[in-house]
Amino acid sequence: MSNRDNIEKNTEHLAKRFAHLDHIGLIGLPSIDKVTIILEMTDPVWAVHSIQLLLLHSEHPIRIIALPGSLEFPSIQQYFAKEDPIEFWPYEAGIDRVNQAFLTIETPFVVLMEDRIMVTPRWLSSLIWPCLDEEHVMIVSPMSPTEQFDGKLDLWFQSHVDLVSYAEEHNPRNQGLWRQVTMFTGSCLLFRRELLDVVGGFDPRLRSRELKVADWCLRARMITRQLALCEDVYVQALHSLQPRRGEKIISDEWDVFCSKWGMEREAYPLKSISELDISKCSIQPFISIHHEPLFITVFLVVSEVLDTTFEPEYSTQIEQTYSRIQWVGILIGEHQELPCNEHRIWGSLDALIKVREVEEWHEALEAAFMLAKGEVIIFMFATRAYESDYVTRVVDFMYRESADVVVNTGNDTPNLEAQVHIPKEPLPVPLSLTAHRRIQEAGSYVRSLEEYYFIPRASLRAVYWTKGTEDE
User: Fold this and answer.
1) pLDDT tens digit string along 48-95?
2) Known InterPro entries for this protein (predicted)?
3) Which terminus has fewer CB within 10 Å in the chain: N or C?
4) What DSSP assignment string belongs to 72-123?
């Protein structure tokens, strides 16, 4: 586009803005009651700095919903005053926290951003203007280092003062300049609240943020809504030295995306998305925001082959913090058992299966699977001690890693740097440390004299984590 064309386009936008302000009796900023900012937090230091800048540089009244990125995310509430417009939400395993926040939106405009974004003065008004210039504009992005195609601008500054100085020079020079684009992937987006009514929220089958945002943008374009790139706004982004969970597009997630949009696999996924012809796509653009956390079935196994005896402390197996659990007890072998209503562990179960011969344990599993209602099966054995948040962490790990099978391999306390190992070939793993989705023929179950084992099917995504239990 030539400079003359830019000037003509800019003049057209500014004329529309003046007419809008004249119509409502204002000369200045657009009249917006409040803007909701959904902040996805991954690093406590980044989050504190990002929120401080939002409070400092947002000229409109704002409501900040701060969403922790993991169970281990520390509290940062103490760094802010009680009167600050911030809601710190607790983490909830097995559910998309952004979709949860979407349910509470009442303001006309919403910003979705990550905590690595640093804003500058007048950033918010500049992002709102394209929506007032053109009624079909539904999603707006600034220039930033986190965009992959249109809008990618990666600058370096020695301090935030230098960033502000750049914005003070850059923004007025390009005031009013924006253009329609086909795709966003970045970490800062403004959108109209009404978009949630026509396309809903993020697709819960996708985990990486890039694919979730790309899918959302494609669905918006399917209903003839526009994406606007603001060339008069630049936001800086901090970068981690190590890739964070959710940033890398995993192979099987890309398969889901390609299947959904009728695409063939390519070596460079994002390029394929940007070239997608949505006129040939036949999917339904709307995805409901209402999603309950995963429902889990826990198989609690007591087996004579493992020399298990009834002890009162075994009742702690069912004292888990995760609330959506169906408990199925599996009693294998000859036991001097107590009636169900006289023993705490059995009286709290939803179902109990008993077989007298150890050789019949496969039949016991088959019967248990017929009773299972959960989306995920977790095996817990009475010979192991599990922390009260064990099920919560399994669910969280399976959800974040988009795994079909989760295997607990260590005794370390989990942290944000927990290692994930994906074997090239399926390996026998202890059944007592295994969870898998309720999939037909998820794998095979075998037994030795010391342990029950599970061998995942080769086509499933099996991940190994370092969250441990302690053997009794």
Assistant:
1) 999 999 999 998 899 999 999 888 899 999 999 999 999 999 998 888
2) Nucleotide-diphossugar_trans
3) N
4) TPPP-GGGS-TTSSEEEPPP-TTS-HHHHHHTT--SSEEEEEETTEE--TTH
pLDDT tens-digit readout, 336-345 = 554 444 455 5
- Dist CA 185 CA 130 (whole Å): 19
What is the spatial distance between Cα 183 and Cα 270, in angstroms, rounded to a whole number?
10
Taking Cα atoms as reference points, which of 354, 352, 356 lies closest to residue 371? 352
Give the integer Cα–Cα distance in Å for 108 and 269: 33
Compute the distance between CA of residue 400 and CA of residue 195 in angstroms, rounded to an integer: 26
8 A C-beta contact, residue 151 and residue 142: yes
Mean pLDDT over 23-29 rounds to 57
Contacts of 84 (CB under 8 A, 6+ apart): 55, 64
Q: Residue 122, by phi and psi: left (phi above 0), alpha (psi -120 to 50) or beta?
A: left
Q: Is 217 exposed, middle or buried (0-12, 13-18, 19+ CB in 10 A)?
A: buried
- pTM greater than 0.85: no
Residue 388 neighbours by CB under 8 Å, 6+ apart = 316, 319, 320, 321
What would the pLDDT profile of 247-306 be if each residue is shown by its tens digit? 556 667 788 888 899 888 775 677 778 788 888 888 999 999 988 888 999 999 988 766
Indicate whether 217 and 91 sit together in one domain: yes
Residues 6+ apart with CB under 8 A from 10: 175, 176, 177
Residue 4 lies in a domain: no
Cα–Cα distance, 128 to 138 (Å, whole number): 10
CA dist 428 and 245 (Å) reads 26
Measured over the CA atoms of residue 371, residue 373, residue 377 and residue 383, the dihedral's sign is negative
**Contact residues for 250 (Cβ-Cβ < 8 A; gap 6+):** 207, 208, 402, 461
List the domain range (segments joined by +) for residue 100: 31-280
pLDDT band at residue 31, thresholds of 50, 70 and 90?
low
Q: Is residue 130 part of a domain?
A: yes
- Residues 68, 204, single domain; the answer is yes
Tally of structural domains, the chain: 2
Provide the angle, in degrees to the nearest 10, between the axes of the packed helices 123-133 and 3-24: 90
By the 8 A CB rule, do 229 and 181 touch?
A: yes
